[in-house]
Amino acid sequence: MKLTVKVWRQGTPADDGRFETRTVNDLEPSLSVLEMLDKMNDDIVKEGGDPVTFESDCREGICGACGILVNRRPHGPTPLTPACHQRLSSFNDGETVTIEPFRSGAYPVVKDLMVERSALVDVMDAGGHVQVAAGTAPDADTDRITYDTAELALDFAACIGCGACVAACPNGSANLYLGAKLAHLSMLPIPASERGMRADVMLAEADERFGPCSLHGECALVCPANIPLVAISYVNKERMRCALRGKND
Amino acid sequence: MLLDSREPGGPADEAWSRAKKDYRLVGTSNRRKFTIIVVGTGLAGAGSAATLADLGYNVISVTYHDAPRRAHSVAAQGGINAARAKKVDNDSVSRFVKDTVKGGDFRGREREAFRLAEVSAGVIDHLNAIGVPFAREYGGSLNTRSFGGVQVSRTYYTRGQTGQQLQVAAASDLARQVNAGRVKQYVRHEMVDLVVEDGRAQGVIVRNLLTGELKPLLGHAVVLATGGYGNIYYRSTLAKNSNASAAWRAHRRGAHMAMPSFIQFHPTALPISTEWQSKTILMSESLRNDGRIWVPKEPGDSRPANDIPEGERDYYLERKYPAFGNLTPRDVASRAAKDVIDAGHGVGPLKNSVYLDFRDAIARLGRDEIAARYGNLFHMYDDATGEDPYTVPMRIAPGAHFTMGGLWTDYQLMTSIPGLFAAGEAGFGYHGANRLGANSLLSACVDGWFTIPNTVPDYLAGHLGKPVISEDSPAVTEALESSYSRFDRLLGIEGQTPPRDYHRRLGEVLYKGCGVTRSAEGLIAAIAKIRQIRSEFYEDLLIAGPVDRVNQELEYAGRVEDYLQLAEMLCVDAYDRDESCGAHFRVEHQTSGGEAKRDDESWAKISAWESRGWSDEPVFTRHTEPLEYEAVPLEVRDYR
Ligand SMILES: Cc1cc2nc3c(=O)[nH]c(=O)nc-3n(C[C@H](O)[C@H](O)[C@H](O)COP(=O)(O)OP(=O)(O)OC[C@H]3O[C@@H](n4cnc5c(N)ncnc54)[C@H](O)[C@@H]3O)c2cc1C
Ligand code: SF4
Ligand code: FES
Question: For residues B520 and B523, what is the distance between their CA atoms, to the nearest angstrom?
Answer without folding.
Answer: 5
